[in-house]
Specification:
single chain; alpha+beta; outer membrane lipoprotein receptor (LolB), chain A; Metallo-beta-lactamase, Chain A; 11-stranded antiparallel beta sheet; 7-stranded mixed beta sheet; 11 helices; 22% helix; binds zinc ion
């Protein structure tokens, strides 16, 4: 009888022993974390603090860390059902002197209000991004997953699940049932599966929840957020302003000269017809924009291959569309600083949202440019120049069309929505640098084509740049 009982108990224990032998019960670990951190039944959470934010892919020199901004105040409100987020912050200039993009130079304070809600472009990746930004969102996203698993890694337990954007999200749980680190990827036009890597430290009790007083988040290997949290609130009344309907500007084209077309409806692109090929100046933000421009180029100038793509600089909003031209078979013409950088980034995987190049892999071909390169067939000519003393990006090219006296430039002068009629109180060093380069090269500029076209698509003249820099006329060559 006694023997039998022993046998029975060991049989009864068998399932539990099997779970332990496998490692851990993921649901149980998650439950412990949720109970410890608190806020499991909250409908929303808001955390506020101050620190630094950094503009991804907007560095002043190739391979440098992302440029820094001061987040004087940083308030993030998150709703869990449905997933939605609002970031309200006040930024000031962090790099001194200005270096890189991301809205530099900020004069005074800049207020930002960014809403991601159902129906906005980034909504699908939002649970992933939030899981990598605050622990309570990790718990919520993990509890909604169908494939949560747990494994022991040294003293920590790693919880892993697949998020709605198909990314694997991993969270490292310490012996206090706190989440110390999360990694998760979102699709990005340049970085591919772009991994957020966040560490949560200095957990404290705020308004009945455990929350890290320090959040350090990296993306692409460098910090994007370094925040000291000073308040956390649960169940705040959530107000998300209605998301503006995604309005894609209509693609249109304008003839600038013989065999030269400006293509609008996004970042500007200029198509130039040579004897046996077409050269496109600037790819723009992403695969979608590139593919639309490529179709328009083929309609405007049929029968010739797109042989070259001129890339002004390596900032991600200008590099996101370059890969489509590699897939198209074009040679990428860019400053010598950039090809190795692109090759390094493009070695990443692009599984979350495979672009054209990921679907049809092809090794890139580059034509590196130093200070000057002339592309000509004897009849049609593009002169490329590297901007000197240009702190926005150290490998930045402008394109000069000598016959039409048109200068195509990116981020040297981004004109305001309405024409400038008076010189701003603070003059942008980038505007000054562009003008100095025009003077140095003695370019008789009749029209500027900013890659960031003003919304009214007006003809931007040198006079407007002179106004922006407080000058009446160009100076003699420097
Ligand atoms: Zn830029």
């Amino acid at each position: 009888m006694r023997r039998q009982l022993t046998l029975m108990s060991s049989l009864l224990l068998a399932p539990a022993a099997a779970v332990l032998a496998n490692g851990l019960d993921a649901g149980q670990v998650l439950n412990q974390v949720g109970t410890t951190l608190g806020g499991q039944s909250a409908t929303s959470i808001e955390f506020a603090g101050a620190g630094s934010s950094y503009a991804l892919g907007q560095q002043g020199t190739v391979n440098a860390a992302w440029p820094r901004f001061n987040d004087q105040s940083h308030v993030r409100t998150v709703s869990f059902d449905p997933w939605a987020s609002r970031l309200q912050r006040v930024r000031t200039q962090g790099e001194n002197p200005p270096s890189g993009g991301g809205g530099q130079p900020i004069i005074g304070e800049q207020k930002q209000d960014q809403v991601t809600a159902p129906g906005t472009p980034n909504a699908a990746a939002l649970p992933t991004e939030l899981a990598a930004t605050l622990p309570q969102a990790f718990v919520r996203a993990a509890s909604q997953a169908k494939d949560l698993s747990a494994t022991q890694e040294g003293k920590r337990v790693v919880l892993e699940f697949t998020a709605p954007n198909n990314a694997k999200v991993r969270g490292w749980v310490n012996d206090k049932h706190q989440i110390e680190r999360v990694t998760a990827a979102v699709a990005h036009p340049v970085l591919g599966d772009a991994v957020y890597d966040t560490t949560f430290t200095d957990y404290r009790s705020f308004d009945g929840v455990q929350f890290p007083a320090h959040i350090l988040q990296k993306q692409g290997g460098f910090p994007v957020l370094d925040l000291t949290v000073n308040s956390v609130k649960l169940n705040v009344p959530v107000e998300f302003p209605a998301a503006a309907p995604a309005s894609t500007p209509k693609l249109a084209s304008e003839k600038l000269g013989e065999g030269i077309y400006l293509i609008t409806g996004g970042y500007a692109a200029v198509a130039v017809e040579f004897k046996d090929h077409i050269t496109v100046i600037e790819a723009g933000q992403n695969d979608e924009r590139s593919n639309a421009v490529i179709s328009e180029v083929k309609r405007l100038l049929p029968g010739k291959p797109i042989g070259e793509l001129v890339n002004t600089h390596a900032h991600f909003d200008h590099a996101g569309g370059v890969r489509a031209y590699v897939a198209e078979g074009a040679t990428i013409v860019t400053h010598r600083n950039n090809p190795q950088y692109y090759e390094k980034l493009w070695a990443n995987s692009y599984t979350l949202s495979p672009d054209r190049l990921a679907q049809q892999p092809k090794p890139p071909r580059f034509q590196p440019v130093d200070d000057k390169l002339v592309l000509t067939d004897g009849k049609q000519t593009i002169e490329l120049y590297r901007l000197r003393n240009f702190a926005h990006h150290d490998g930045n090219l402008v394109a000069w069309l000598p016959r039409e006296k048109i200068l195509v430039e990116a981020d040297g002068f981004n004109p305001p929505p309405a024409p400038l009629t008076q010189t701003p109180e603070k003059i942008s060093p980038f505007h000054v640098s562009l003008l100095q380069n025009i003077e140095r090269l003695q370019l008789d500029v009749q029209r500027i084509i900013p890659i960031h076209l003003p919304a009214d698509n007006r003809k931007v003249t040198l006079a407007e740049l002179l106004t922006a820099t407080g000058k009446n006329q160009v100076s003699a060559a420097r």
